Amino acid sequence: MESQSLGVPDLDTQADDAPQLQSDLARIKQAYVNEKVAPEILEYDEELVDRLRQRLADQEDKVQGLDAHWSVELERSMYQLELERLRYLLASYIRTRLKKVQLYAMLCLEEASPGEDGAAPTHPRLSRQEMQFVQEFFMDMGMHMKENILKNLPPGFDQLVRQSNADPTKDTMPAPDLDRHVFCRVLEDRGTVELDQQGLETANFEAGDLYVVRYKAVQDLLKDKWISLT
Q1: Distance linking the first and last C-alpha atoms of the chain
Q2: Burial of 44 (0-12, 13-18, 19+ CB in 10 A)
Q3: Of 174, 175, 166, 106, which is closest to residue 142 (Cα–Cα)?
């Protein structure tokens, strides 16, 4: 009873959800590494991010609810350390994605699907907030380019996504290099995997193996969680 009056948290409750927390921390850490290494923008893990954000809010409430007493300083330090770990991993994950979103803003808009009945467009790998950011960023960037650069170019060379109007391809639109080599670790036995389009180069993917391969060859394996990047 005395410990409750001093504001000591229920450590049994904390222990009960420890496995879930450790699992989520491992997942967000790997999601951050995957995002950092992959040349393209990966699918946003909304469920995981929302759960960790709720965890952050709960931990902040616990820290604020602790009484200022020497007997709870250890518990306060534990909660505070967990808060910092969560903040760092979440911020790293989201910041890495935003860098890519800015780099590939034009491509994201081209890949987006128009919303129904006037709703905002959606993208299969971006969150709603990221999609809104893409639109605002592209408008600001486009206005800046037109006012400071494109208007000073000769007619026919004043396009944002083409070097010239005569070029049918959007050759100035940044796109990820899917042929870039990456390190990947096999999470589950997969058997023979083709590493080129001709099927001339193959590898036997077994759990725990580490490979250096072209990203395009393992793109779908990463999406289906057969591998992780490192």
Answers
A1: 49
A2: buried
A3: 106
Asked whether the whole model's pTM tops 0.85, one would answer no
Alpha carbon distance 220, 207 (integer Å): 17
- Residue 140, pLDDT > 80, answer yes
DSSP reduced 3-state for 109 = helix
C-alpha to C-alpha distance for 59 and 51, rounded to whole angstroms: 12
The structural domains of the chain, ordered by start, are: 2-103 (1.20.58.1030), 105-176 (no CATH), 181-229 (3.40.5.60)
Contact 9, 75 (CB under 8 A): yes
Query: Could you tell me the sign of the dihedral formed by the alpha carbons of 161, 165, 170, 172, in that order?
Result: negative
Residue 181 in contact with residue 212, Cβ under 8 Å? Answer: yes
116-134 confidence digits (pLDDT tens): 777 889 999 999 999 999 9
- Do residues 44 and 32 touch, judged by C-beta distance below 8 A? no
Residue 207 and residue 186 in contact, taking contact as beta carbons nearer than 8 Å: yes
Q: How far is CA 187 from CA 32, 34, 44, 131, in A?
A: 17, 13, 20, 31
Nearest C-alpha neighbor of 122 from the set 43, 195, 53 = 43
